[in-house]
């Protein structure tokens, strides 16, 4: 039956116009189509017209079968191939009719659509009314030219024959063709030659279907389309791609492969870009709590096809140059996929996973951690697959992907700043995800042997590098050297490994490294607010809470709840063991690379590093941005504080070598703050961590690693002296924390005889070790004085608060002020006393083995005075003022402190030290020693033998004091010009200061220069080697002393003579 729609066919001119338009689009694509067929594992040729159809295969004759087939010993099976019932032409007409749902036979039943116009044309041309390769092109054009909006075709819409868009129609044809092809290729009753002939024909037909599919996607108005609210063109593929590819509404991957091959050089990007944009729009609204997997799966499906993967970076939205850091994660092609975040600060809905309230259930938090970490790991895996697919698709695509990452890095430079407006930079999740994808690219060259470290460029930052570090502080290069390197026109060629390495370094700097610092600062703020909240709750429980503070409690509760959720959100990702392990391995590689750069032979780690290094580092190292080292130390400090088990399960060789090499080599890191962080890393290594015995620490490596055994002691002892002047406004207080860390390291390794011998060797370097000993005493004096003074303040306030009546009647303002003073004193006392304890303890165990440096003229008097003063504080009349509640909170252990101080006295029991004690007129007292002995004996702090030695020491001091009094009486009044201008004691070895021309005792100026390298009278620079012996004054002093002694001797003789005469 003939369809009414064919009563009004398109005119010949209209048909010709459509044909010419198609041919113009398809011109020059024959070779592309051949590739398409080849990719379908079929015949290497595709045709769009009869001229390109190869001749059919030669018919196989019975003779050929006999000649070419093996001799059969059994009769043929009943299923042996037979000649087909239909000729090839008849089969082709029937198959294509079923595939295209059209017919040239007016009696064809629905759903076949009779193409009456084309049938008339073929009859006029005396062509058979069959669909074959010769007529296929005209059949498709005629079918697609039917306008579903025309009135005469309305009944076809009702029958469902024209209600679908042309792309949907062509895709369905493609699917039916694939089914026919599959059935044909599996037919066991047909000869192989027949199957091959039919499959070849189907492949040629498929090529034409793919061509027209691409055309209607690019130019949906090329043929009449049904009325629809859905957008036409490439956007039609979006919903299909988001659906299951095996479902009727999905799009088969083989179809996309055919499409990519056919249009590779013919506008594939015009098809793909709207498609990817549509999928990205879906991803833009996704989160880890919603369906992020569907758009991600769609993206990965596209990228699995190399041709499409290579086309994706060619779009205008790939890396929009004018997009800001905040916009790039939204408007760029891959931005919406990378921005899927597990951080509350990016996606507030994540907070739902952690529950509510200040007291969270630990099991719930653990469950939230597992959920977020599992999801984010899945996102990272998918993002890596997508990125890797694009990079591997084509060299140009790889370059565009790298440029995309470099561009994001550049736009987010402000993320590395201490204070930044988050609205002006990309989100944490976006940067975090990129970092982890880059980390996975680093994986092949992060092997334990670092076998590919030589592939990483050492001159990446020479000239105009792809990472702008013009505003960055350099490790140790001068401005002139930086300018010279920046202007170098011969930038080195950078390989892919180097690009990935430095990109990972950059993204860690603006990402995880910044998060570590933010987490530390945030945690401090959290605990401070919680302490304030707890104090208010105590007031509330005591009925002393004001109405204003009652409102403050509610605000604190709301804020603390938000802060707790935020903290848990950060912990779920930055403390993820897998993430930490990735960063650990990466920074191991960075440390090895840095050591290789400074190594003279540039052969590390394949060959051991030769120390000491040259006095000046090479330029490639000097011009590196300081953040390279800063990020290393921040990472290891973060891990050692919060997840030491991560380090405990890994090798520490690179870390120990790195820290010791750069501590022992002066001038390579000019920032003392960074070197202090290296010391802090070693300090944390000496601490036991969760689940470990006290003697089972990461610091064991310090007692076995060959570099540590040789260079650790000189490195930390030199740095102990170096930190006296750091150049920072807080240097006075910084040095105490740094030296505390050093004291803990020294205590840890002191039991190792190799390290102890190294300390002894350092002590023989007289000038250096004397400065060390001097600073040790200075610190002890200040810290104990400040710490014990704070205990007195605490004692006074506690006594005041114990008077309940007086305290209750005091004004709220007074109570608040005193409580504030007490909290400050408690905090300071804890810090000062802990540091003071360690310095005294270090003096105790060092003086047991090393004595000479502590007995030098410039040291011994000050050491004796310091010990006497603190002994008076501990056991003198004011000792009761040190009694405080809970002394352990302030780490105040008076018995241990007393024992250590007495140990120092006993260790230094020799004439020089005894004389120094005798000269201390301010604090020395035999009575104090007697009281200390009773305490030591009563508390069993020292053995009887040690107490006896102490008594003998005091006896010796008393003898020297008596002799000193006699000598002083013998000399009488000392002339002013013989007195030391600083100490007002008789000079023994006077020297002249070169700039002020003032004479002073050598021991006095040496003691002064240990702490201040200037002339004390005019502040001009001064070294001990610059002073001039004042021979004349020394002679005059000696002459005067002899004269005074002679005069005294004569007077004594006269007195004796007079006594005899009487």
Automatic annotation (TrEMBL):
<feature type="domain" description="U-box">
    <location>
        <begin position="973"/>
        <end position="1047"/>
    </location>
</feature>
<dbReference type="GO" id="GO:0000151">
    <property type="term" value="C:ubiquitin ligase complex"/>
</dbReference>
<comment type="similarity">
    <text>Belongs to the ubiquitin conjugation factor E4 family.</text>
</comment>
<keyword id="KW-0833">Ubl conjugation pathway</keyword>
<dbReference type="InterPro" id="IPR013083">
    <property type="entry name" value="Znf_RING/FYVE/PHD"/>
</dbReference>
<feature type="compositionally biased region" description="Low complexity">
    <location>
        <begin position="35"/>
        <end position="51"/>
    </location>
</feature>
<dbReference type="InterPro" id="IPR045132">
    <property type="entry name" value="UBE4"/>
</dbReference>
<dbReference type="InterPro" id="IPR003613">
    <property type="entry name" value="Ubox_domain"/>
</dbReference>
<dbReference type="GO" id="GO:0005634">
    <property type="term" value="C:nucleus"/>
</dbReference>
<dbReference type="InterPro" id="IPR019474">
    <property type="entry name" value="Ub_conjug_fac_E4_core"/>
</dbReference>
<dbReference type="GO" id="GO:0005737">
    <property type="term" value="C:cytoplasm"/>
</dbReference>
<dbReference type="GO" id="GO:0000209">
    <property type="term" value="P:protein polyubiquitination"/>
</dbReference>
<dbReference type="Pfam" id="PF10408">
    <property type="entry name" value="Ufd2P_core"/>
</dbReference>
<keyword id="KW-0539">Nucleus</keyword>
<protein>
    <recommendedName>
        <fullName>RING-type E3 ubiquitin transferase</fullName>
        <ecNumber>2.3.2.27</ecNumber>
    </recommendedName>
</protein>
<feature type="region of interest" description="Disordered">
    <location>
        <begin position="1"/>
        <end position="83"/>
    </location>
</feature>
<keyword id="KW-0808">Transferase</keyword>
<dbReference type="GO" id="GO:0006511">
    <property type="term" value="P:ubiquitin-dependent protein catabolic process"/>
</dbReference>
<dbReference type="Pfam" id="PF04564">
    <property type="entry name" value="U-box"/>
</dbReference>
<comment type="pathway">
    <text>Protein modification; protein ubiquitination.</text>
</comment>
<dbReference type="GO" id="GO:0036503">
    <property type="term" value="P:ERAD pathway"/>
</dbReference>
<dbReference type="GO" id="GO:0034450">
    <property type="term" value="F:ubiquitin-ubiquitin ligase activity"/>
</dbReference>
<keyword id="KW-0963">Cytoplasm</keyword>
<feature type="compositionally biased region" description="Basic and acidic residues">
    <location>
        <begin position="12"/>
        <end position="25"/>
    </location>
</feature>
């Amino acid at each position: 039956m003939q369809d009414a729609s064919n009563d009004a066919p398109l005119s010949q001119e209209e048909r010709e116009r459509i044909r010419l338009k198609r041919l113009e689009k398809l011109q020059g694509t024959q070779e592309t189509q051949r590739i398409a067929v080849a990719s379908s594992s079929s015949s290497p040729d595709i045709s769009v017209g009869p001229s390109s159809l190869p001749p059919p295969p030669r018919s196989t004759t019975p003779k050929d079968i006999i000649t070419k087939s093996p001799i059969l010993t059994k009769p043929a099976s009943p299923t042996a191939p037979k000649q087909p019932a239909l000729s090839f032409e008849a089969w082709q007409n029937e198959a294509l009719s079923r595939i295209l749902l059209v017919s040239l036979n007016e009696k064809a039943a629905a759903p076949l659509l009779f193409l009456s116009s084309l049938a008339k044309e073929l009859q006029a041309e005396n062509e058979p009314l069959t669909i074959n390769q010769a007529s296929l092109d005209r059949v498709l054009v005629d079918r697609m030219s039917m306008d579903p909006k025309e009135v005469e075709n309305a009944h076809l819409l009702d029958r469902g024959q024209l209600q679908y868009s042309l792309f949907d129609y062509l895709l369905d044809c493609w699917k039916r063709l694939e089914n026919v092809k599959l059935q044909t290729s599996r037919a066991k009753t047909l000869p192989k030659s027949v199957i091959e002939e039919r499959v070849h024909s189907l492949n040629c037909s498929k090529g034409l279907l793919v061509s027209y599919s691409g055309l209607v996607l690019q130019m949906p108005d090329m043929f009449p389309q049904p009325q629809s609210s859905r957008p036409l063109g490439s956007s039609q593929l979006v919903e299909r791609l988001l659906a299951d590819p095996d479902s009727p509404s999905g799009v088969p991957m083989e179809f996309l492969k055919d499409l990519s091959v056919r249009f590779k050089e013919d506008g594939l990007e015009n098809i793909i870009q709207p498609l990817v944009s549509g999928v990205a729009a879906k991803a833009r609204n996704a989160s880890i709590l919603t369906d992020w997997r569907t758009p991600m799966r769609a993206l990965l499906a596209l990228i699995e096809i190399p041709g499409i993967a290579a086309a994706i970076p060619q779009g205008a939205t790939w890396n929009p140059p004018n997009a800001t850091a905040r916009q790039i994660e939204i408007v760029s092609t891959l931005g919406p996929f990378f921005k899927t975040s597990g951080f509350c600060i990016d996606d507030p809905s994540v907070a739902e996973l952690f529950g509510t309230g200040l007291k969270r259930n630990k099991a719930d938090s653990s469950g939230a951690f597992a959920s977020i970490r599992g999801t984010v790991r899945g996102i990272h895996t998918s993002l890596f697959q997508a990125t890797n697919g694009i990079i591997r698709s084509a060299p140009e695509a790889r370059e565009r992907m790298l440029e995309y990452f470099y561009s994001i890095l550049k736009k987010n430079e402000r993320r590395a700043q201490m204070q930044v407006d988050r609205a002006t930079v990309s989100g944490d999740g976006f940067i975090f995800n990129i970092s982890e994808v880059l980390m996975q690219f680093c994986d092949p060259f992060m092997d334990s042997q670092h076998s590919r470290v030589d592939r990483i460029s050492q001159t990446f930052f020479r000239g105009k590098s792809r990472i702008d570090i013009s505003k960055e502080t350099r490790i140790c290069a001068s401005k002139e050297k930086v300018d010279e390197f920046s202007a170098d026109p011969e930038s080195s060629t950078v390989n892919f490994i180097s690009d990935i390495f430095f990109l990972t370094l950059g993204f860690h700097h603006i990402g995880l490294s910044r998060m570590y610092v933010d987490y530390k600062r945030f945690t401090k703020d959290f605990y401070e607010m919680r302490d304030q909240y707890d104090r208010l709750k105590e007031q509330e429980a005591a009925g002393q809470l004001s109405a204003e503070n009652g409102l403050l409690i509610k605000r604190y509760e709301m804020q603390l709840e938000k802060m707790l959720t935020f903290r848990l959100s950060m912990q779920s990702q930055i403390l993820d063991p897998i993430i930490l392990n990735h960063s650990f391995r990466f920074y191991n590689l960075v440390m090895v690379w840095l050591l290789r750069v400074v190594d003279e032979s540039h052969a590390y780690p394949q060959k051991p590093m030769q120390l000491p290094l040259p006095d000046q580092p090479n330029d490639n190292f000097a011009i590196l941005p300081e953040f390279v080292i800063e990020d290393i130390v921040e990472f290891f400090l973060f891990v050692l504080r919060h997840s030491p088990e991560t380090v405990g399960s890994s090798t520490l060789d690179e870390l120990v070598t790195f820290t010791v090499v750069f501590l022992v080599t002066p001038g390579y890191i000019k920032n003392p703050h960074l070197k202090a962080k290296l010391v802090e890393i070693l300090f944390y290594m000496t601490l036991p961590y969760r689940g470990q015995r006290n003697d089972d620490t990461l610091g064991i490596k310090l007692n076995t690693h060959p570099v540590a055994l040789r260079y650790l002691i000189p490195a930390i002892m030199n740095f102990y002296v170096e930190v006296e002047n750091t150049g920072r406004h807080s240097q006075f207080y910084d040095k105490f924390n740094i030296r505390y860390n050093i004291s803990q390291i020294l205590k840890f390794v002191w039991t190792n005889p190799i390290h102890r011998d190294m300390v002894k060797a350092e002590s023989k370097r007289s000038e250096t070790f004397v400065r060390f000993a001097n600073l040790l005493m200075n610190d002890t004096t200040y810290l104990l004085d400040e710490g014990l003074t704070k205990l007195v303040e605490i004692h006074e306030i506690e006594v005041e608060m114990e008077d309940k009546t007086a305290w209750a009647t005091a004004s709220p303002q007074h109570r608040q002020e005193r409580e504030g003073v007490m909290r400050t004193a408690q905090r300071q006392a804890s810090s000062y006393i802990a540091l003071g304890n360690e310095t005294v303890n270090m003096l105790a165990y060092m003086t047991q083995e090393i004595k000479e440096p502590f007995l030098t003229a410039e040291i011994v008097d000050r050491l004796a005075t310091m010990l006497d003063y603190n002994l008076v504080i501990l056991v003198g009349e004011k000792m009761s003022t040190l009694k405080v509640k809970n002394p352990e909170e302030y780490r105040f252990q008076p018995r241990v402190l007393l024992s250590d101080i007495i140990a120092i006295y006993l260790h230094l029991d020799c004439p020089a030290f005894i004389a120094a004690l005798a000269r201390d007129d301010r604090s020395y007292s035999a009575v104090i020693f007697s009281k200390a002995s009773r305490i030591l004996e009563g508390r069993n702090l020292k053995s009887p033998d040690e107490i006896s030695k102490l008594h003998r020491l005091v006896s010796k001091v008393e003898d020297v004091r008596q002799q000193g009094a006699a000598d002083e009486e013998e000399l009488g009044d000392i002339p002013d010009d013989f007195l030391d201008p600083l100490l007002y004691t008789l000079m023994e070895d006077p020297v002249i200061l070169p700039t002020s021309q003032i004479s002073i005792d050598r021991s006095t100026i040496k003691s002064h220069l240990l702490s201040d390298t200037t002339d004390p009278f005019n502040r001009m620079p001064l070294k001990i080697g610059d002073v001039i012996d004042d021979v004349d004054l020394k002679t005059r002093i000696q002459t005067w002393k002899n004269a005074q002694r002679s005069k005294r001797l004569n007077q004594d003789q006269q007195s004796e003579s007079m006594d005899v005469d009487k």
